[in-house]
Write a structure and sequence with these properties.
With 365 residues, this protein is mainly beta. It has helices at residues 131-135, 244-247, 350-355; strands spanning 22-24, 28-32, 38-43, 48-54, 59-65, 74-79, 84-88, 94-96, 105-110, 116-121, 126-130, 152-154, 161-166, 176-180, 184-189, 194-200, 205-210, 216-221, 226-230, 258-259, 279-284, 290-295, 299-304, 309-316.
Amino acid sequence: MYQPHPSPTHSFKKSSTHPNCLAVSSTHIFAAQAEKAVVHVYSREHGNQEAVVPFPEKIRSIALAGDYDEGAGCLVLGAEGGRILVWELATGRLVTTPPSHVQPTTSLAVAPNKLHALSGAGDAQIHLWSLPSLLSFSTPVDGNTAPYTPVLTLSSHHGPITALAFGHSHSKTNIAVSASQDKTIIIWDYLSGTNLHTFLLSSPALSLALDPADRALYTGSSDGSIQFLPFFTPTSSTSQIHDPSQQNTPTQPPEKDRWKLPATTTTTITEPSSRLPAANCLTLSYDGTVLLSGHSDGKIHTWDIGKGRYSGTLHDYAHAVTNLTMLPPTGWPNPRVPRVKLHQVIKPRYESTFTSSSSASDPGF
């Protein structure tokens, strides 16, 4: 049963992050410092700051590509200049692409099978990347630069990309979700670039959370409300995102599926929407029954999924809550033993990478 502790059990200081700038494994926490070109690395085993990793440009988003239990794998980073960087945590190897976005890469997501990543920016473009191609040591036989360019580009949005998410499936039919300042949510078949369905919202979505079984989507809005977007309807056993008769028709969710904060949690009942505490981040409990939302006024609120309404305030901080991550449950009788466990990260060798990556033909390693 989901029963969160009402107070923090541990704090790591010296870091302030923007949304989409936090990644967590079983051994480490990675936080891209706001307005600075550094990433803080914290050791969860020792409970301290392990390293401060500098970069030549600001990091605007990060995502972990690797098994949570092992803590190894790669850290995918989105840079101020529109680049994508992939850092092998156990070796220090760093791969960087040429600038692919014309604005800072502020959103990243990694597929559950760790084969693909999505990047989004203020240019309204979403790029799909092949992680095996980016990390490959081999050079294309025909001499082209395909491994260091996006596999494809998703470009149905008309405003800055605010959040990205993948479904939980490891199959080729997995979905991806994107949110934009243009007040739309798009469900994608990301491997083919097909727009499966579009949702029209009343306010821009800043954060996303998918049901553990991919039955529904929850969005956090700029006005602090939570939008519930079910993929199944009571009259149909087929998901509307896979129903050809509904794919080409955008859906505007009913007002009853928009969960609002009670007036007592905001300054006044008539507070203008521009000053309401925006829902910067969302996370779901492992059983999908409780939703947590982090807001710009420093509060973490809980929402009852079954009843479809506000439940209470979990904690109140002095500063805005920008990132939330729900850790997997522990205490199972026969836990999986990781094949590799990373006790200390190796800092990236970025000097030669950035100096040699000025052109698309030489991305550098």
